[in-house]
């Protein structure tokens, strides 16, 4: 989902996962749409808000034929070039490379928080346990899954300062308003350097 909105009178661009469609997984069309939206917001000095709830990117033969790898890279490189404020809120699941494409993992966010319901990791714990530990007896496997599920909680991430805060979902609007006020009082007042003026949105 990409849209323009107003929060407390301030125009913002919202780039959000849509878990109703494909459980929130992103395909090549979604990545191209996101890249175009990043360019739009950066061109018009519009702060970006990312609402992350994605299990990852689509893979497989069809995705490869549509060059999903190059779309992932093009979107994330555009994300690195964005110079308007970037606010990321991890809502639920946020796994793997898609985490970076949703401006969560070291991709230049200015503000990064999570709801208590967030799950952060390299993949879903039920799958990750099999990848990491291989075939285990069911009882032992379940223990590994539970351990990995605990590790995907946002609290360890906040404890290691990987995310800045864990916020009550009810306070999300209040939080966004507060950081937009910080941006407005900053040296450049959230103005873009317009590095994406000629960015290739499709190729």
UniProtKB/TrEMBL annotation:
InterPro entries: AccD/PCCB, AcCoA_carboxyl_beta, ClpP/crotonase-like_dom_sf, COA_CT_C. Residues 1-201 form the CoA carboxyltransferase C-terminal domain. GO terms for molecular function: propionyl-CoA carboxylase activity. Coiled coil: none annotated. This is CoA carboxyltransferase C-terminal domain-containing protein. It comes from marine sediment metagenome.
